[in-house]
Design goal:
94 residues; alpha/beta; 3-stranded parallel β-sheet
């Protein structure tokens, strides 16, 4: 997995959060080497979702209630609409 400590598309960075380019994330997901955690709210998720096998959806507003449901056997790639929520959740999970 190709990761970076500096985001490619965000103008902010949270210390300790690693970043992956979309094309690298897609490759990892297609190969079954990672899990995608979508933390967008339900209304956002219903408009556009990622139709891959290893995608789970827990909105940031309910992430604490679902910690036990987040698999720990593969790297987790976290996604949201603009990067703020996913960076916060990644920081919390790390």
């Amino acid at each position: 997995m190709i990761i970076s400590r500096i985001p490619a598309f965000q103008t902010f960075n949270i210390y300790g959060v690693e970043h992956i380019l979309p094309e690298n994330a897609f490759e990892e997901l297609q190969n079954g080497k990672a899990i995608l955690l979508d933390v967008r709210e339900e209304s956002e998720f219903m408009i556009e979702f990622i139709p891959l096998k290893d995608v789970i959806h827990f909105p940031m507003s309910s992430i604490m209630d679902n910690l036990k449901n987040i698999p720990a056997d593969k790297p987790i790639i976290i996604v949201c609409q603009g990067g703020v929520r996913s960076a916060k959740v990644a920081n919390m999970l790390s």
